[in-house]
Amino acid sequence: MWDCDLVLLALGFTGSEKTLAEQFGIEMDFRTNIKATEKDYATNVPGIFTAGDMRRGQSLIVWAISEGRQAAHHVDKYLMGQSNLPLKGEGDLPRV
Ligand SMILES: Cc1cc2nc3c(=O)[nH]c(=O)nc-3n(C[C@H](O)[C@H](O)[C@H](O)COP(=O)(O)OP(=O)(O)OC[C@H]3O[C@@H](n4cnc5c(N)ncnc54)[C@H](O)[C@@H]3O)c2cc1C
Question: Which tens digits make up the pLDDT trace of 21-68?
Fold first, then answer.
């Protein structure tokens, strides 16, 4: 324990901004992350997907890239009925 006069917390990402989520009626968790699972990255609102920090909370760039690519597959499938975009499970992307 150190005595001090002032503590400054320099936080980067401290949660998603609520404005859009509230306006679209998108469910959030108690940390204001947008709710969606890794199954398909879909939110409770049809046609709205989420990935990266907005879904996981503050994380790493490798997760943002990985989730972005996974989510792209599911968005494509939602729009086209099928997708040829790679998924991690098929060995096309590195596992992180
Ligand atoms: C200070 C700091 C240092 C970090 N250092 C590292 C590190 O060394 N290594 C590492 O792996 N990770 C690091 N990270 C974490 C990494 O940056 C994030 O995990 C990653 O950038 C998340 O990517 P994302 O695409 O999910 O979100 P973001 O990169 O945050 O992209 C979200 C984008 O959406 C935009 N946006 C937000 N609201 C709206 C809106 N209403 N309309 C339109 N656009 C909007 C934002 O402007 C932003 O461009 C760091 C983070 C911070 C804050």
Answer: 999 999 999 889 999 999 999 999 999 999 999 999 989 999 999 999
Give me ligand 1 centre to Cα 87, in Å: 22
DSSP state of 90: G
Task: Judge if pTM exceeds 0.90.
Answer: no
Query: Which single residue is written with the structure tokens 């098929």?
Result: 90
Q: What is the CATH number of domain 18-90?
A: 3.50.50.60
Domain boundaries, the chain: 18-90
The residue whose CA has the least distance to atom 50 of ligand 1 is 60
Please report the atom of ligand 1 found closest to the CA of residue 58.
19
Q: Closest ligand 1 atom, CA of 19?
A: 41
Cα 11 to Cα 49: distance, rounded to the nearest angstrom: 26
Biggest CA pair distance of the chain:
61
